[in-house]
Amino acid sequence: MTTVTSPRPVATAAEPTVDVAALEHVLLGRWGDLRKATRELLADPRFHKVEGLPLAEHRERVLGQLRLLVSEGEVLRAFPAELGGADDHGGSLARFEELVAADPSLQIKSGVQWGLFASAILHLGTADHHARLLPGAMSLDVPGVFAMTETGHGSDVASIATTATYDPDTQEFVLHTPFRAAWKDYLGNAALHGHAAVVFAQLVTSAPGEDPVNHGVHALYVPIRDPQTGEFLPGVGGEDDGLKGGLNGIDNGRLHFDHVRVPRANLLNRYGDVAEDGTYSSPIASPGRRFFTMLSTLVQGRVSLDGAAVNASKLALKIAVTYGNQRRQFTGASDTDEVVLLDRQEHQRRLLPRLAQTYAQAFAHERLLATFDDVFSGRADSDTDRQDLETIAAALKPASSWHAMDTLQAAREACGGAGYLTENRLTSLRDDLDVYVTFEGDNTVLLQLVAKRLLSDVAKDLAHIDAGTMARLVAERAADVALHRTPLTRVVQTLADGGDVRRSVGQMRSTEAQRELLTDRVETMVAELAGALRPAGKASRAEAARLLDAHQHQMVEAARAHADLLQWEAFTAGLSKVDDEGTRQVLTWLRDLFGLTLIERNLAWYLIHGRLSAGRARVVGSYVDRLLERLRPHAQDLVDAFGYGPELVRAAIASGAEAERQDEARAYYREQRAGGRAPRPEPKPERAKA
Amino acid sequence: MTTVTSPRPVATAAEPTVDVAALEHVLLGRWGDLRKATRELLADPRFHKVEGLPLAEHRERVLGQLRLLVSEGEVLRAFPAELGGADDHGGSLARFEELVAADPSLQIKSGVQWGLFASAILHLGTADHHARLLPGAMSLDVPGVFAMTETGHGSDVASIATTATYDPDTQEFVLHTPFRAAWKDYLGNAALHGHAAVVFAQLVTSAPGEDPVNHGVHALYVPIRDPQTGEFLPGVGGEDDGLKGGLNGIDNGRLHFDHVRVPRANLLNRYGDVAEDGTYSSPIASPGRRFFTMLSTLVQGRVSLDGAAVNASKLALKIAVTYGNQRRQFTGASDTDEVVLLDRQEHQRRLLPRLAQTYAQAFAHERLLATFDDVFSGRADSDTDRQDLETIAAALKPASSWHAMDTLQAAREACGGAGYLTENRLTSLRDDLDVYVTFEGDNTVLLQLVAKRLLSDVAKDLAHIDAGTMARLVAERAADVALHRTPLTRVVQTLADGGDVRRSVGQMRSTEAQRELLTDRVETMVAELAGALRPAGKASRAEAARLLDAHQHQMVEAARAHADLLQWEAFTAGLSKVDDEGTRQVLTWLRDLFGLTLIERNLAWYLIHGRLSAGRARVVGSYVDRLLERLRPHAQDLVDAFGYGPELVRAAIASGAEAERQDEARAYYREQRAGGRAPRPEPKPERAKA
Asked: Would A164 be classed as within a structural domain?
């Protein structure tokens, strides 16, 4: 499969040119060979989403695709070599992320089986589980369910209500669902295909002679269906979640347990174990830290959603830019030639800033994936490394999933009625991507975690922190914030001072000025938050909770600003990977467009905080417009460099059909004019002429 | 069907209360009885969308629903009394708008049949057509197609390529599709059900002895299918558009014509006729004005989309606010009680400003519908009245359709994973509403029309204006703009001047201050645009086109600001319709929230233009937060007042089931604590305690 480039306007001599193949190579990144191999595999129509399939057929098709992946897709790379894997964590995720181009249901159902179900056995279990349970999970002989979320608790996993109570007489856990809100819910593979589940429950046990203690959330391996009949095992019940807004190739469902007995050996006991007599033990003394350590082994879900969301944005822009480069509507300077949509300013405004952000996110994701690989390979897995990984993932996954939704919708609208047809994929991808903003951590909740991390160096028990503790941490932290501030004031001051408009635009174009404006904003927001929250340290719990809540929006905004900065820094670092001068020039304009768009979006903040004068702020918009003009001739190159061939784009309007239709129509009119066959237009009445 | 109100927090004594029934009455407006009757009809499950139906079944179901409407739905109100209608234009649209709550496909397919197909016969045809063709269209004996858009031309209808060439020898028109881009496309009823079509084509004819002249776009009534067999008639061909992002109850498709002969009598000849000998005549001398007069008879499509989009936003908020008022997650001030989502600031930020805008749009739509009724009833149908109607519709339909998409998505995300389940309707409504931003005038194109109208008093040939003419009009207009400016400077100046923060908040809360800030922005933007475009008056066509395009984004933004103002003014006027004092107080806060949110959204503009000082701008956000706190206790009342009973809401999470689940879970834990049966939590290790 080779990269297909599309027709584009001929660049004038003075224009830099983009080396599309070299740029594609940079974008494919460290795991580029694996990504390309996966795309070649996915060119096979057997992996493609068939639109409009009835629910049951779509579910069966995706299950079948998972089986194909087992034999052809190297889905086991992340597992240990001794179990048939390759100990390749980054490469494994890179492959899974590419699946979104075939069918997002395929990506997510694969994620359920190998990224959640089998991974939980690997990371939360020990040698016996690996030997006894992993082979079935890896080979898909045992389709599995990751049963964590309940109808009543999604974001607050620590409060799930399912209990696993140890019975020393039989050496079993009694797994039980106490009420309706405690049903496990939204679980992939639960409605139909799952034979076993990793079930998260409050582990209750007592040492001999002592009262029962709740040791918090632990995971157990629980068979749920008879593999022969597909019927639920005794005590297990469930429900189909039915149709969803998208991802209907996955059989999401609900599970509940009525005093189901699970052998002691099925407790995934790496971080917490129960002896025969009921005595609990754990290598991690703090219950809070233990809980977050267990959850942190599952961070790969967020990482791969980030990568897949960026890929969805790339597809959206490949489709919309290609169509916008061929579609014509309304005449402009000419009587006979209609204007190509992408030559219109508003069309550029709709698509090019989103293209810039997609590039930024692609570079940011590559960094995240490298960090993930460092941690999971053990090359750099200190507590701080893990916390950094989690914070970056918690910042980037919201940014990229919201961006994908925004970009898919903008692309769909930019393609007009054609964008609404399912054959052009944009609505289908949007429907599938929608829930990426919710699962593996609701975006708004994740951003609050990021804000807490920004506010606090005390990262253990980070997310589980209650209002009082949080307030105290913030109070301690507030004093330190100043230390972390780089000496921004000088340069920012320069921007606020006098000088003509051209010079101020030149200044904002500089990498340093953009960096300082973006960094300053994050640091100032965090410092302001810390100051505002300081009184909570001495307040009552109720008052502290009220104060925290009154700043929830500011926390979310600060975390977003941090995510913006991460993306901008990654894009800026990425520029150095580009050797070709013309390509680097164009990418630098694109990075500038991203930086300036961020500043434009938050212009009021910069004005209120005196970081930009009104005069400087006024020119940001016109500089964005100038960048749009410069980038417009390169738009097609920039989307072609994503490297998606027609088998992965699969949108009728991006197939070249529109260009053919336009050429045919223009040829017809040209011929009519040349042959004098065109009827003359009705003359305007005399008074209108005057 | 009575209004079902939901449980809500008990208001404190000092709080004003909302008279929900009275507010519902105000919101239902002038055509409230018809709206209520329609909702009662739609409570019948026969009208409800069945999710997940295969394409073919959904299409048949909606066709069947249209037949039910013929017998039970008073769909003919807008038609003349002598033909069985009621000459009730506003009331008719009010009824159609309500259909969206049953199934948006039902609303839009009804719109195709009665709002487009039959309406075109009524408004573009004459007595013979009314007698001969309307009865079948009205009774649905002849399901019809409105064949205007082509694959190659949607927004620029004047450039469609289908031709109708008069042949005096046979007194027929020869209807022909010259190339692929000229296929009619995206047409409801075209794929399957349509037996006839109103086809728009370039009308070419010649007076005896003269060369053929193209008189521009005209409409012809064309049978397309054999009603017995359902097969295309000779020379007619077509294609199914297939699956769409939504509205799959409508059989959209393509049509093309190969020298199809249409009797001369089938030209809908109210605005342009061809005599037996081929001589063309029209009551409107200017071809441009004639074209826009023909199109303007179809403005009701935009009006009813505006109303339906507002209704979709109401449904979204009814669902999300009800759920957010029952769903609990994370503890706050209490160890045992989790916090109701809507008590969280960020949740309020997501939902309440959108609720405020939905109210504004509801009041704005009521005004638009009244204007529409005045024009179409003939009570006020001067050229200016019609142009005002078109401009308001072109401003409001983009605002409400984008707002519906934004609100449905925000509501879906605010409901988390539950929001993604089809049973909760939010994704389904979003998918159906998506194309409302494109059809009946692409939002971005409509906003440019609004901007042109704002820029130009010379309203004839408004939309068809070429770049040179536009530039000249603008140049003339620029001098006049100052005349239209109300004396804002004084009050705005006061806001920028000194005084403490509390006072400035108080000032921005005042109706006059909000009005002046919002009005000033529109007028200044238009004046700036006019100034910037002035040089185009003397420029070459190419240069004028370039200049116009360089300000396209500003034009769109100015039109949006105008639409914001229209909504705000309508909301403000609406306050006076509320007699109950408490209700009016709460609605006034809601109007303030809308006004302040608009100012917050455009804060950079106010700062750059010196309309607000940095100090004043800084408090806008905190005043928004204060309004959220004030409005929060009334949120349920405000969505209950939309008057949708359970048959129209039909979302499992808004049915009370969530409250039941939460109550059951809390009762369980209470009982456990009371009975001493709750296992104690694992103690924190010593060092963590220290």
From this structure: yes
Structural domain includes residue A151: yes
Residues B133 and B234 in one domain: yes
Cβ–Cβ gap B333/A546 under 8 Å: yes
B290, B309: one domain: no
**Helices in A216-270 by DSSP H: which ranges?**
none
Check residues B635 and B8 and name the one with the higher pLDDT. B635
C-alpha to C-alpha distances, A74 to A79, A88, A413, B417, nearest whole angstrom:
11, 11, 37, 31
Between A517 and A685, the higher pLDDT residue: A517
Collapsing DSSP to helix, strand or coil, A461 comes out as coil
ipTM for the whole complex: 0.93
Q: How confident is the model at residue A469 (pLDDT cuts 50, 70, 90)?
A: low
- Closest CA in chain A for residue B470: A332
Residues in B touching A343 (Cβ below 8 Å): 549
In a domain, A270, yes or no: yes
Three-class secondary structure assignment of A339-397: EEHHHCHHHHHHHHHHHHHHHHHHHHHHHHHHHHHHHHHCCCCCHHHHHHHHHHHHHHH
Do B344 and A413 count as a contact with CB atoms less than 8 A apart? no
Q: Which of B97, B150, B172, B440 is catalytic?
A: B440
pLDDT at B467 over 90: no
Mean pLDDT score across all residues of chain B: 91
Catalytic residues of A: 440
Residue B674's pLDDT is: 94
Instruction: Identify all chain A residues contacting B204, using CB atoms and an 8 Å cutoff.
Output: 679
- How do strand B172-176 and strand B260-263 relate by DSSP bridges? antiparallel
pLDDT band at B243 (very low <50, low <70, confident <90, very high): very high
Cβ-based contacts of A285 with chain B (< 8 Å): 685, 687-688
Among A37-46, A489-498, A665-674, B619-628, which stretch is predicted with the lowest mean pLDDT? A489-498
Identify the CATH number of the domain in which residue B424 sits. 1.20.140.10
B556, B444 contact by CB (below 8 A): yes
A216, part of any domain: yes
The answer to whether B82 and B141 are in contact (CB under 8 A) is no
Contact B553 A625 (CB under 8 A): yes
> Which residue in A241, A246, A679 is closest to B212 by CB distance?
A679
> Which chain B residues are Cβ-neighbours of A625 within 8 angstroms?
550, 553
Residues 6+ apart with CB under 8 A from B573: B363, B367
Higher pLDDT, B321 or A467: B321
Instruction: Answer with the one of A254, A274, A290 that is the final residue of a domain.
Output: A290
Number of residues assigned to chain A: 690
In total, how many domains does chain B have?
A: 2
Instruction: Choose the mutation target among A553, A555, A655, A658 for the interface with B, i.e. most B CBs under 10 Å.
Output: A553
Instruction: Kindly state the average pLDDT of the residues A432-461.
Output: 85
CB A174 within 8 A of CB A164: yes
Of A212, A344, A614, the CB nearest to B607: A614
Q: Is the confidence at residue B8, as pLDDT, over 90?
A: no
- Contact (CB<8Å) A413/B443: yes
Question: What's the gap in Å between the CA of B52 and the closest CA on chain A?
Answer: 7
If you count residue pairs, one on A and one on B, with CB atoms under 8 Å apart, how many are there?
Answer: 297
Query: So what's the pLDDT on residue B12?
Result: 54
Distance CA B491, CA B290 (A): 45
Q: What is the pTM for the complete model shown?
A: 0.94
Cβ–Cβ gap A212/B439 under 8 Å: no
Tell me which chain A residues have a C-beta less than 8 angstroms from the C-beta of B181.
Answer: 661-662, 664-665
Domain that holds residue A539: 466-640
pLDDT of residue B1 exceeding 60: no
| In a shared domain, residues B377 and B275 | no
Nearest CA in chain B to A183: B661
- Please state which of the ranges A414-423, A640-649, B476-485 shows the lowest mean pLDDT: B476-485
Distance in Å, alpha carbon of A93 to nearest chain B alpha carbon: 24
Residues B66 and B191 in one domain: yes
